[in-house]
Each structure stands twice: as structure tokens, then as C-alpha cells.
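User: Mind C-alpha cell order:
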Amino acid sequence: MNFSTFLAFYKTTGSILITVFSLGIVVVIHEWGHFLVARARGVRVERFTVGFGPEIFGWTRGDTRYAVCAFPLGGMVKMAGEFDDERSQKPDEFFTQPWYGRALIALAGPVMNYLLAFVLFTFVALNWGTMQPSDQPVIGDMIPGLPAYAAHLQIGDRIRSIGGSSINSWEQMARMIHERPNQKLSLEVERSNEKGGAPKLLHLTITPQRDPQQGMGLIGIMPHIDNVRVGLWGSFKVSLKDLKAWTMQPLRYIKQKISRWEGPKELSGPLGIAQMVTKATKEGAAYVIYLMAIISTSLGLFNLFPIPILDGGHIFLYLIEGVIRRPIGKRAMQVVNTVGISVILTIFLYASYQDVLRLRLK
């Protein structure tokens, strides 16, 4: 094996290990939430497992067996009396808890994912700063195929005026472009001189393209991104903003796909997540940690969906139990869980299929 082959193998192995570690931490934190609240509610936890498959090593402390298993993706918390054939109505069993106690235990997993995401988002903002779009009317990036690219604008160009009106901010420039779809605009552009002399002034004509969804004009430019230090309190605010954004974005996406009766082709399964983590490792630690925060937020959100066998599905059933004031029948629970498993399996297979399609297109 030559050095280049060894280096490629080392990088690939490192990316795999980072992927496994990232996903493992996110899932174990989720299960730890269930564990903590179950113990606080007086429920006996029989087993806390990191990974799945054959046990590699473990120890027993009190009533709980702690184990590390061969495949380090995921984890599991096994509570006493969690399954029908194990229930004996002892006070330390899961189903001896009132409906709201069981709902709290189920809710604890997603809550821990959100807490982890908050800590990670804060850590990134505090140590590396936060990316904020500059308000200067300077082009930071462009989208090929849109009018700005076709008009030969360049990254670093400053828009001085549009239609004879002076431009002082990105917001002012964007508003003027958005308000004029399919209308010719005359631009005065300042471009740095590569030889170090005075900047060049260019006069261009450009026609904003109408966005089919929002109807506004677009030319395909994006602002320069500044890395800004925000301090501890600012990092908290940035973290909350990121949590909101990464929660609302998937919900808006799902709503859009449902309203258009389209399949979620951008959905990622394990292969897609592994690709994203691998790409993040090339960008540096900040990107890996930020991606872990996104994954943790997504896992917390997904588990809150009222799909049977997910935490959200359990919470929904426990709420129904609280309303009707009696346990849901075993037969009904079996049907509901079967439907839930079918839904989750379908989502998993569909996401994996989309991952494979994306790999084949590369």
C-alpha cells in the first residue's frame, strides 16, 4: 500500500468514525432523556444500551444493566413492564404510571435532542462566531444560469445604482430588484481593478427573472457573508434562532410537498446523512458540530410527529387515554403499532432509495 492509498483509506475511515460517533451521540442523548425521566418518575430501568447487536461489555448497577454493543449506532432504554407479557402491576413498572407520567417519559427524548442542539449551536457561535449576511450591496456569490451570471457580473462587484437611484444597502438593492420582475434595469457597478489601480465603473443592463413561486424579481446574487463574534448572550440568541429555523424549515417543506402532492425527493436516509457528515469533516470541526446540532434537532422534531411507535405517537395515545379516562385496548394498540412500523419502514426505504439515486447521479 503506497502513501496516497493509505492517506485515502485513513480519511475514509476517519469520516466513517466521525459519522458513527455523531449519530451515536445524538441517539444516545435521546435515550438518556427517557432514562432520566423514567428514573425520576420511579420507573425501574432494566437496561440502558449504547448501540445494538451483541453486547461487547457492560456492567450492572442497581437494577440497571448498562451495555455497549457491537454496532454503535443508536441506543435503547428498556423499562420494566414496558411490554404486555411483562406487566405485573408493580409500582415501579412503566404502565403503572398514570398517562401523563408516561407522556413525560416519552417527551423527554425529543426534549433532550433539542437541549443538545441548543448547546451545540451555542458552542459553535461562541467559539467560531456566526455567519451573518453583510448589508453592503456587494455580491458575495452568484447562481449560474440566472440573469446576473448571464450579464457577467462578478463576485466582489458593488452595485452603485439601479435606474439612476443610488444604492446604499443590500436591502434597498434587493427591494428594487424584487419589485421589478421582467423589467430592464440599468446598473452602475463598481469593480476592483486587478492591477491595483482605481476601481472600474461598469454600466450594465439586466432583466430580473420572475420567481414562479413568489412572483418577485430575481437576478441570482447573494450577499457577502461576514463571520461575527457575538459573545455568550449573543450565542444563546443565535442558538435559539437556529433551533427555530431548523424546526420550521422541515415543517414548511412538508407542507409545501403535501399541498403540491409531490414526493420529498430531498429526504435523506443513513447514506445521505453519512455523506453530509463526510463533507462537513472536510470543512472543519465547526461544520461537524453544527451538523450534529441540525441532526439532533431533526431527530427531536421527527420523534414528535404523531406517528405510532414514535415518541409523538405514544404521547398522542396517552393523551387520548387521559381524555377517555381508560387504557386503549390491546387489539387497538397492536393495529396502531403495526401501522406505525409500516409507515416508519416506508419512510426509511424511500429515504434510502433517494440516497442511492443521488449517488448514481454523481
Notes: The chain has nine helices and twelve strands. The radius of gyration is 26 Å.
